[in-house]
Amino acid sequence: MVEIQRTQSESSGSLSPSAEEESKYRLLYSKSKVYVNPTAYARDNIPGFVALVKREAINPIYLLAWIPETLLCEKGTDEWNKFVKIEEKATLDEEDEDAVLIDLPTQRPESYAFSVPLTSIYSLLVHPPTLSSWYGTIGINLINSSTLPTLYFHDDESLSMTIPSRHTGRNSTSAYPPSTSSPSSSRPTNSWGGEDLLSRLRSYAHLLRSTLQPSLFIVDPSKADLDTHTTQIFDDDAVDDILAQSSYASSHSPVPAHRRPRPLSDVPANAPPNSYVPRSSVLHRSLYPPSISTTQSSSQARMALLQSFSNITRATRHAAQNILSHPLAKPIVPHLPDPVKSLVNANGDLEWGSWVEKGGVGEFESARVYLARWARIVAEEGDRARKREAQALPSSSNVVEEISPLGVFELLHSTVNLPSPKTSRDPAHPIDEALWAKWFDKDGRPKVRLEEMRRQVFRKGITPDGNLRKKVWPFILGVHDWDITGSEREAKWEEKRKRYREIKDEWCGVPEVFDRPDVLEERHRIDVDCRRTDRTQPLFSTSYEDTADNGPNGNRRYTTISPQMSDIGAQSPSNEHIDRLAGILLTYNFYNKELGYVQGMSDLCAPLYVVMGSDEELTFWCFVEIQNFLRDQSGMKKQLSTLQELICVMDPDLYRHLEKTDGLNLFFCFRWVLIAFKREFPFDDVLRLWEVLWTDYYSNEFILFVALAILESHRDMILRYLVEFDEILKYCNELSMTIELDSTLAQAEVLFLSFAQLVADIDRRRAEEATDSTSSVLRRRGTSASESEGKVSLSKIAMPTLSDNLRDLLKTGR
Prior knowledge:
InterPro entries: Rab-GAP-TBC_dom, Rab-GAP_TBC_sf
Number of helices: 32
Number of strands: 11
Pfam family, one: RabGAP-TBC
Radius of gyration: 33 Å
Largest sheet: 11 strands, mixed
Shape: globular
GO molecular function: GTPase activator activity
Protein name: GTPase-activating protein gyp7
Keywords: GTPase activation
């Protein structure tokens, strides 16, 4: 057995017993040709040894280390041979008397070397070799939320995996991960190097494989981890099995024939496999190894219980249909909620078949959506528990703690080797009144550049205390010019005030315009929308009191937008601020006659009215500038098309899944982009999000990266559970008011930086290819044909194609 010693003393007798005890490091395990890939280029890959080390002490400490070959070479051939000797050994005996003392190589930051105690490791992310990924990898996540370099196991080069005498049975099939039984006297046969490392780690720590993510192994899990990562998950095809056993799934089923579940037995040998619920799915294999039957009593009991619930639900719906189809029920049908009203049409005839078809999976229409939502909640709870535990534990002295809201966030397979971007956001220290005042001279001229102001707003946001947003937002939106004095700014603002009054006077107090048929129609649409917008806000929550001046001879006629006084009784009550909000939107209808009023504008204008303290002129001109951030219908199509291309480049797996489910139209993102996530976040978070989007700090279309961040946060649930477009649509709609803003913005920033990094990397590679091709033509006479073809083939790496729409995402400033 090899021991590693830090001191350079040749004589062990020169150390005291206690000092010698602390200086010994016993090498328990070693494996060669384990690479770290700092960049996307193979020439930059760093080979090294992964090792398990035991520090001799009263309470022994076990460490996981990776040492590059260059550091071992600096110590000479003897040090190298000692690591090779341990790798060649077939015994697992820690008390080997043939111990060798070596010096621990000096660690340098540029070498990527590390050695961390097993107690400081939270989890391992294990990916065995596949047809698309030749080398298996292991990612190491520490308790303090930092991540060590990913280890790539080049088994075709590793000495321990290529010696025939040790791995005569290498080609035999073995289940992954390896068995947790106690180690025998000889090293077990494993399918790849990472599996060999896991089998040795199990001798010194408890590894728990997560049921939520089969590739995740928790090291020495806590009670919270056990509760989170050992929760039973339904099979991929549990819902279909329940439907297949149900008697309702046969003759009287309203589900169309092509949507009915396949039977559990009597499946033709040549029948095509079910594309939605494959028996050989990763989730199915991870939950039930081949030796375990999926028809055990516990599974049967669960299925029987779900089937009972199904029968109750079906009977209830049939009873509701029979009642609502009766002629006496016709008067009450219009007053019923939409889900109940959908069971019958206007004539009282049954629409059950079309309702099932529209629902996607019939009586189990929301089963997969429920499972996806449940799994998301469990994962979020587990992540919160892990963060609480990490905060309670002291951080390791060997690793610099790095606080990040992202957690384990893998971006791209093609750029995983590029340096990982970091978020710059610091929402805990927003811009306040004191900092804002420091940015201006006494004459009102700013001391800082406009770009710096936008950068600070993007990073920190604006404090909600006081009225600072009322001062800052007009500058962000361009209502106020930046690089002028306060007096010049006030003069320009007076011109805009006057212009607003002129536009408003076109309809206010002018009956022949106010009561014109086309204006009446616009007034009605505006009034209906404004009466139901943000009624929880104090300004809009009250209603008019019954006062004497509200009669026909009062002054309310031209301040109330409702076309008819009788309409008020059929809608939510109005008040002064709702009327003023409607007046602003009607004025905009006269300001922009080509676009006019569009449904959803009230959602965008109401927060402005609240922040501006009911200032009509300021609200109006801020709203005008916001329209520069919006698009008409064709513009919305371009944005969704660009988002589709962005998903294809950044997450090909998610793109293929959406393609299979007919979800590439991205209708579930339409509302997000149309009204800038107004209905996805609480009101205060909407204000914080908007001021970030308006800065255009990184991109004019940063909203698309916010949408991508939300999809990436829920990609596992979408890929695992949601196999129909309407299931994805329902799941995304139900995310409303459940999304955490700060982590989403941080992820969006990292996604943008990764995208910019990817674009730069693609452009660099193509430039190198062009240079290489030109040089090869010039050097063709002095180089053999085989050598030239080899160089060209190595330089040809598949790269995604970037359209003009994707490259426009890098533009900033409107």
